[in-house]
Amino acid sequence: xxxxxxxxxxxxxxxxxxxxxxxxxxxxxxxxxxxxxxxxxxxxxxxxxxxxxxxxxxxxxxxxxxxxxxxx
Length: 72
Hints:
By secondary structure, this protein is mainly α. Helices cover 64% and strands 0% of the residues.
């Protein structure tokens, strides 16, 4: 299993374990998780200042799902 499928599998396992809400859309969240670094890479490649991808990373970490007992 590679790439997005592996991320989706992990998200589904976290849903099953109660670390993420039961209504978490595993497939879409996995795609989102893959799209973010791709977009950040593209911006960096296109010459964005380092602050742009760094700032995006901070936003991603602030808005990621954090339910259940596990944090991180």
